[in-house]
Amino acid sequence: MSNLKQQNNMSERKPIHIVEISGKRALTKFAEFPIDTLYKNHPYYVPSLISDITGTFNPKENPAYEFCESICYMAYRDGKPVGRIAGIINHCLNERTGEKEARFGFVDFIDDKDVSSVLFKFVEDWARRKGMTSMHGPLGFSDMDPEGMLVDGFDQMGTSVTIYNYPYYVDHIESLGYEKESDWVEFKIQIPKEVPEKHQRITDIVKRKYNLRVIKYTDTNKLIKDYGQKIFELINVAYNDLYGYCPLSQRQIDYYIKMYIPMIRLENVPLIVDENDELIGVGITLPSLVKALRKSRGRMFPFGFIHLLKALKCKNDVVEMLLVAVRPDYQSKGVNALLFADLIPVFNANGYTYAESNPELEDNNKVQAQWQYFEREQHRRRRAYCKKL
After folding, report:
1. Residue 76: Cβ within 10 Å count
2. How far apart are CA 188 and CA 290, in angstroms?
3. What is the pTM of this model?
4. How many CB atoms lie within 10 A of CB 1?
5. To which H or E segment does residue 139 belong?
6. Nearest in space to 358 (alpha carbons), one of 385, 319, 389, 313
7. What is the pLDDT of residues 93-110, one digit of tens each?
8. Residues contacting residue 344 through CB under 8 Å, at least 6 positions apart
9. Burial class (CB in 10 A: 0-12, 13-18, 19+), 319
10. Roughly how many angstroms between the first and final C-alpha of the chain, as a whole number?
């Protein structure tokens, strides 16, 4: 950060040039900026895959463009990239809420308020031209995209699906008139050597009371056939009332089934079903990809895919809790206990020592209650901001 600031001070306030980004080549530069420039050799930054970013902003690949539109800008000074930002409008969500909200996301900039202010000016002006009356973020097209600006935990390694940003981002964005709208918290959970006794008692009671059981698959194709669609339908129902959530469309469901389910380790995915085999709950966990992503520098080739495959297949000391979803009529009834009673022995067998919870809304007491029987530390906090336009 200090080197970038020193470079900025030496720039003699050269003018900032804003470029609207389109096309794969330009989007690749948009994706590479934080990896190769802003956070190069940073000890806590975890890069996204460049191909994921370019795919996210490709209407032919990302089914969210059925009901979303977007724009991407990059800021240059003296021919060098100094910032980036994306604007997104989710028309489906706006129809659902009756609001005229735009989103900003995929935002990064050097420690220069001239740069951040002009980036936000361009994306805000775009939103106004589209008839929007407020700006929110950082958010993506859907909850499947990284969201939330880091406001606490800058000395902690992120996860494979979260945003890292420098502390100065907070001052920049608040100086532009943005205010807190919602916070997420994240936990580091120590994995016990065995299922806690109280946790096991709750598991046994819930199983008997509601006639539930945990099932696991050993064949990915069979899991997709039996429950692939149902998993994402459950996510839509379970997350329906959460901040900023827009139900996934059928094309998005098909897209995420194809993208995510083949890469998961099936032993890490317990499904809770009732006596009629109806899906009640699911937990999806994944060995941490952080080290692999850092080694690959966001690139699948020539060797990045090897690092990722090793992280998925080999032993790892960290596991990421990608998501837990429970049907609303079974929430707050101890159903989550079944998931962890199944997962704890698996985690120990795989050598995981702790789990990363990934972001949970600070007021989502139902989700945070599931960690009460575990030794845990709330080690990161991230924030969504809003501003009236």
Report:
1. 16
2. 15
3. 0.92
4. 13
5. none
6. 319
7. 999 999 999 999 999 999
8. 191, 192, 194, 195
9. buried
10. 31
